[in-house]
Amino acid sequence: MGRGELANRQMHLARFLRMLQRLADEFGVAVVVTNQVVAQVDGPPSGHMGETRKPIGGHIMAHASTTRLSLRKGRGGNRICKVYDSPNLPEAEATFSIGTKGVDDSTDGKDDDE
Length: 114
Known about the structure:
One of its GO terms (molecular function) is ATP-dependent DNA damage sensor activity. By secondary structure, the protein is of the alpha+beta class.
């Protein structure tokens, strides 16, 4: 499926996301949607990640999401979660690790991956 099918794919994606929103509203539950990122090779670095990566799904995904998070690898076994788009949360980052007991505080106490 190439760019010629983009409008059709976006329409189906929008329909699916509206259905998820209705379920969330009806049952009072949170819906978590994961998304892939791809390299942006056509243009300067931009977007929420400040890099040459961008989430797939276009504006449909952005408008259907209330709070958007970006997850990336940090130093060692740490991971970094960044709030980059939310109506009620400031842009911020938190460092955490995933171990045998599940999600835990950062293993080195640092909040960045520099």
